[in-house]
């Protein structure tokens, strides 16, 4: 019996070595952790339950029958993060470069199926040279099996991808369909075709980092939601973000104890909006002063910075925050910011996360670049996302809410549950100057007259009271009591029940 037990221990020890000590050392020399070390950092200590440790590939071409590693290049199983269940797969670059074989894919599919069955999130730690070249089409089939599960799991359980090494070719499309992508700076990259193919086809010379590194994807392409300095930071931040999320689409997000009183008054908010309407202020400051302990997990902080999105808590309950940022492009809506916020609103709605919208928007960004780039369709994404969302929606207009952008930003008309305005709010169809130049076109050469008309228009419309008199704003509130108001509303809205008409699915303008 002892010998049998020892054999199991020996086999386990061999599997834990992956592609061998030399390759583990090479992984460390690149500043990367191994697949197993990453799981240890990600999960609660001792919580990992491994599955399929002894699975090997079935390929017999190219001498592969003589080269087989237990586990086949991916470590899979379940564990907990702060006591809550999660399924994990972690690709092992020391085994055939973490490349995906038929059996490697089957292991990933197995944990995804389990996760969907029991209602727990899936976190994928990606570090792979792509399709296992020796296996050819069997590997492509494996990818497609994973893709199909990504689609089925979307909106059912949260799916998070952490890119910690290469992720190239069609392999990028699995993370692309998950809810969130985090990347590690300098050691991870994602592209559909690498620098060599780019050079051959387009003659462009570009490095891996420029083409698809963490900075590129978290600033330009928005493929990644966040970039981190190293493996440990990426994994610790993944733990932090996981804590905001429910386990699946039927559960509420966990409530974490908060030491921040729900009725905390924040007097400094009374002076945050400058008296000059053209002067910016930092909406981050408003967010941090409203949410529990100023703890805000921002997503895509370096892309479309005129829109802020992220997760925070109010009285311990997770909320998704969508906010215009007056510091960048005056907070206007454009293609990138609309797409950024629209996907986030839909994410929150999938996973029962109430949405808090902070509005200071002068309108849509004008120009041929925007029109030709399809701002009509992309702006509609955000309008659609807010309009279809059935989670509790609370809106606070801090300053400007002009034109179509007023409607879009979770207005009362899009089933906003509680729509507040600060006394500094200006809610109007367009800016006073533009409005006067149209209504009083005949007087446009008389500067004094136009100035007088502009002033009159401003004093009539540049306030929240016209909208409030029509019930489009539920209450004009003191900025210092914003947190209190939101906390109360969220309490009331806990029992909100709203359903959209039955449909197979909607047809959001993609
Ligand atoms: C099999 C692979 C492999 C792969 C790497 N290896 N990629 N084995 N299939 N796709 C093996 C190497 O042979 C090597 O084995 C070990 O992994 C480490 O690779 P190195 O090249 O030494 O590492 P590095 O210099 O860091 O380069 C990493 C790399 C490079 C950039 C990922 O290996 C690479 O370019 N690989 C091929 C990438 C690729 O073309 N993949 C297929 C794309 S098509 P030893 O034994 O020496 O340790 C695709 C289609 C998917 O993915 C479609 C889905 C729809």
From TrEMBL:
Under the heading PROSITE patterns, the entry gives: COA_CT_CTER, COA_CT_NTER
Q: Name one GO molecular function term.
A: acetyl-CoA carboxylase activity
Pfam families noted in UniProt = Carboxyl_trans (PF01039)
Which GO terms fall under biological process for this protein? carbon fixation
Ranges for domain CoA carboxyltransferase C-terminal: 264-500
GO CC field: acetyl-CoA carboxylase complex
What positions does the domain CoA carboxyltransferase N-terminal occupy? Answer: 1-257
Q: What domain of life does the UniProt record list for this protein's source?
A: Bacteria
Gene3D superfamilies named among the record's database cross-references: 2-enoyl-CoA Hydratase, Chain A, domain 1
- Per its UniProt record, what InterPro entries does this chain match? AccD/PCCB, AcCoA_carboxyl_beta, ClpP/crotonase-like_dom_sf, COA_CT_C, COA_CT_N
Classification via SUPFAM superfamilies: ClpP/crotonase
Which family does the entry's similarity section mention? Belongs to the AccD/PCCB family.
For this entry, the protein name equals: Propionyl-CoA carboxylase beta chain
Q: Which organism is it from?
A: Iodidimonas gelatinilytica
């Amino acid at each position: 019996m002892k010998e049998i037990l020892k054999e199991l221990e020996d086999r386990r020890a061999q599997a834990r070595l992956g592609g061998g000590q030399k390759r583990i050392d090479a992984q460390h020399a690149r500043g990367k952790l191994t697949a197993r070390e990453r799981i240890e950092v990600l999960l609660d200590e001792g919580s990992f339950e491994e599955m399929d440790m002894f699975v090997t590939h079935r390929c017999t071409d190219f001498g592969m029958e003589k080269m087989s590693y237990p586990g086949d290049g991916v470590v899979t199983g379940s564990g907990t993060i702060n006591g809550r269940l999660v399924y994990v797969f972690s690709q092992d670059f020391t085994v055939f470069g973490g490349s995906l074989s038929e059996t490697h894919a089957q292991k990933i599919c197995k944990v995804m199926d389990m996760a969907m069955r029991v209602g727990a999130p899936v976190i994928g730690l990606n570090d792979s040279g792509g399709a296992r070249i020796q296996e050819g089409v069997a590997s492509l089939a494996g990818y497609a099996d994973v893709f199909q599960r990504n689609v089925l799991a979307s909106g059912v359980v949260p799916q998070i991808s952490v890119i910690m090494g290469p992720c190239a070719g069609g392999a990028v499309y699995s993370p692309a369909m998950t809810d969130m992508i985090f990347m590690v700076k300098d050691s991870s990259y994602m592209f559909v075709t690498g620098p060599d193919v780019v050079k051959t086809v387009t003659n462009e010379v570009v490095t891996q980092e420029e083409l698809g590194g963490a900075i590129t994807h978290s600033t330009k392409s928005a493929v990644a939601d966040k970039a981190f300095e190293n493996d440990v930071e990426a994994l610790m931040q993944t733990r932090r973000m996981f804590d905001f999320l429910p386990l699946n689409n039927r559960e509420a997000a966990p409530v974490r104890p908060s030491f921040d009183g729900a009725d905390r008054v924040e007097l400094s908010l009374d002076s945050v909006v400058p008296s000059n309407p053209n002067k910016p202020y930092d909406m981050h400051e408003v967010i941090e002063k409203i949410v529990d302990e100023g703890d805000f997990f921002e997503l895509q902080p370096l892309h479309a910075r005129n829109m802020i999105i992220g997760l925070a808590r109010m009285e311990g309950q997770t909320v998704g925050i969508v906010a215009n940022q007056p510091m960048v492009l005056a907070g206007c809506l454009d293609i990138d910011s609309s797409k950024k916020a629209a996907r986030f609103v839909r994410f929150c709605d999938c996973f029962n996360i109430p949405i808090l919208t902070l509005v200071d928007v002068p309108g849509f960004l004008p120009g041929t670049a925007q029109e030709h780039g399809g701002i009509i369709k992309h702006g509609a994404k955000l309008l659609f996302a807010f309009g279809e969302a059935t989670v509790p929606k609370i809106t606070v207009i801090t300053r400007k809410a002009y034109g179509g952008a007023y409607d879009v930003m979770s207005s009362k008309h899009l089933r906003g549950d509680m729509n507040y305005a600060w006394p500094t709010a200006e809610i109007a169809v367009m800016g006073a100057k533009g409005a006067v130049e149209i209504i009083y076109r005949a007087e446009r050469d008389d500067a004094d007259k136009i100035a007088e008309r502009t002033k009159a228009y401003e004093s009539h419309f540049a306030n929240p009271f016209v909208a409030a008199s029509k019930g489009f704003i539920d209450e004009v509130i003191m900025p210092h009591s914003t947190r209190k108001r939101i906390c109360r509303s969220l309490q009331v809205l806990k029992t909100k029940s709203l359903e959209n008409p039955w449909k197979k699915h909607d047809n959001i303008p993609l």
